[in-house]
Amino acid sequence: MNTQHLKYAIEVERTCSITQAAENLYMGQPSLSKAIKELEDSLGFTIFERTSKGVTPTQKGIKFLSYARNVLNQIEKMEALSDTADLDAQNFNISIPRGSYIADAITNFIAELDQDKGIRANVQETNSIQVINNIIDGPFNLGIIRYQTEYENYFVDYLSEKQLRFEPIWEFEYLVLMSGKHPLAKEERLDYRELRKYTEIAHGDTSIPYIMQNNSAKPDAAAKSPKCIYVYERCSQYDLLSTIPTTYMWVSPIPEKWLQRYDLIQRRCKASGQRYKDVFIYPKDYKLTELDRKFIDKLSEAKNEVTFKEYR
C-alpha cells in the first residue's frame, strides 16, 4: 500500500466512477482498476462495489476511505513543516460558489494583507459539490456552498456524513440580472412567463448530493429554460449579458459596482425554487485561524452591502 493508491481510492469515491476517476487522474481505466484491485488485495476486503448509482464504497470501504483522507491530510501537514522559507507567509485557501459579493469579500480581504510578508492565497470558484470534495480531499480548509432551500436536507445530511461543520451565512431570493437595454428592463413588474421567452444564462454544473451521485454537469430545475446558455465562470456571464441584451440570469444580489461596470440591472421576479442559502463549511477538526476570521468579517461586510439594498 502507498499514498498514491489512497489518492486513487478517494478519487473513485468522489466520482462514483472508475472511468471518470481515471480521466481526472490522467491515467488509463485498466491501470486504475488494477491499482484498486491491488489495494483491496493488500487489505483483504473489498473497498468498492458496483450498484445502480455507480461505484460506491462498501461498509468497510467507507471506514477505510475516512482513514485514508486523514492519513493524506496528516502527510500534507508534515510536508508543510519542511517549507521553512515561508514560515512567515500569510496562508489562506477557500473554495467558493460563483457569487459576486463573495468575490468582492475575497478581493477586499487580500488587499488588506501585509504586503511586506509572504502571501499564499488559493481561491477556486466552482459548484457546491466540488467545494465539499475540495475540503474532504484536503486541498482546501474552507468553503462556501450555495443551494436551493428546498434541497437543504440533502446538503445537511451530506455535510454531516462527511464530518464537516456548517454555519449559515445568508438566505436570499434570487434576482433577475439583465442588461439595461433588455426589452423588459423598463417593465414595472417582471412576468415570469414573459421572461422565459428570452435566453437564459445559467451555470451548467449544478449538482445535488444523493440526487446526482455521478457529479455530472447538470443544471438545476430553475435553469431549464427553452433557450439557455450554460457558463462556468462569472466573467463570461457579465460579457454575455451586456453584449446580448436579450439574455438574463438568476443570481444572488450583485454589488452596485458590477452593475455599473457592465450596464446591468437586477430585478425581482417571483418564481418557484428561487430561494437560496449560502453556507460556510470547514472540517470538524479544523481550527479557524486569525486570517480566516478576518475573511469572515470581510464576507459579512460584503453581504451587508447587498442585503439592505431595495430591489423592485
Structure description:
The chain is an alpha/beta fold and 312 residues long. It has three domains: 3-81, Arc Repressor Mutant, subunit A, CATH 1.10.10; 87-172 and 277-307, Periplasmic binding protein-like II (D-Maltodextrin-Binding Protein, domain 2, 3-Layer(aba) Sandwich), CATH 3.40.190; 173-273, 3-Layer(aba) Sandwich (D-Maltodextrin-Binding Protein, domain 2). The protein has helices at 3-15, 18-24, 29-43, 59-81, 100-111, 128-136, 152-161, 192-195, 234-243, 256-262, 290-307; strands at residues 48-51, 54-57, 90-96, 119-125, 142-148, 164-173, 175-179, 199-203, 228-231, 247-251, 264-267, 275-283. The strands form three sheets. A five-stranded mixed β-sheet has the order 4-3-5-12-6, sandwiched between helices. The protein has a five-stranded mixed β-sheet with strand order 9-8-10-7-11. The radius of gyration is 22 Å and the shape is globular. The N and C termini lie far apart (61 Å).
